[in-house]
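[Q] Does anyone have a clean structure-token version of this?
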Amino acid sequence: MGPALFFYKKCCGLTLFSADLVKKERLLRRFLTASSGLYMKKKTSEYECVDQEKYEDLIRCVTSFKDSSQTPESLFEEDNVLYGPVSHRKHLAKEADPNIPGNWVPLMNPEKNSPLQKASPGPPLRIGLQRHKMASVTSVLQRTMPLEQAFFLERWKQKMILELGQEGFAEYTKGIFQQGRLFHATLEELLLAEECPVKEEEEHSSNSGYLASVQHVLQDVSGVRALESAVQHETLQYQGLVDCVAEYRGTLCVIDWKTSGKSKPLLRNTFDNPLQIAAYVGAVNHDANYDFQVDCGLIVVAYKDGSPAHAHYINPELCSHYWNKWLLRLEEFREKGKDSGAV
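[A] Here you go.
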């Protein structure tokens, strides 16, 4: 091998060796760059710069419950500064119950005889209503009507006006009132008579259906004490006109006759009528014009189509229940009168 060839081979070897070194150097740099983050020095925390000796007591107070400077007395002092002093208010359970009348008056009058006093001889009482200073039972119930009940009543009214028109609706309501008065007048005649069959001339009258509806109820009514007679509660200062006070199946009751085009098989279907009955019962018991007492009521709902009337009997327990409700409504009426400036 000549010198030239030997020199050429050496140069080629050096070139390959140099290229290999460059390649390894690049790989080494990449490795160092990728792993440099693992070996970097962590950033110094800002809290390490705090003078720990200066705040040593504060740190110990916060981190140690045993060494805390807070006491029950200091906590109360802080609360007084932040929220004001503690209000020593009476417990809610000791406050007045909104469902209990504030000025409660008993339903029965202890100065009168028992409810089952025998009927005194003579015709039933028919005392005229004096429309003056006292609030009427009807006005009290109307002015304190629950919102839900008032909503449905107003919706029914608007529906009828839409169907009949304003004048037509006025005529419709007028006819209902006239029908009611005629029905009550006819019932009075039947209750005053010794026998109470439906007269032949009435079969074709507008009352025939209602009268046929109540026939089975009239058979259980006797001993009439009052008919369309005014009553007033002398203590609570309200008045009303009671339809009838008589014995129903041997028990003295305040009876209210109602007419309806819709079936009302349940007592709750009569809305405020039980409260009206209770108000009349209380008024009879506290009215000096009546020498007897009542503790029961009866709501009779008659139907125009002649179907049997529904007779809702209100026993003494129920009557007391609705009496309390009536007293609440009467209080509400008085409060509304004060707010409006009415005397």
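[Q] Thanks! Anything notable?
[A] The two ends are 142 Å apart (CA to CA).
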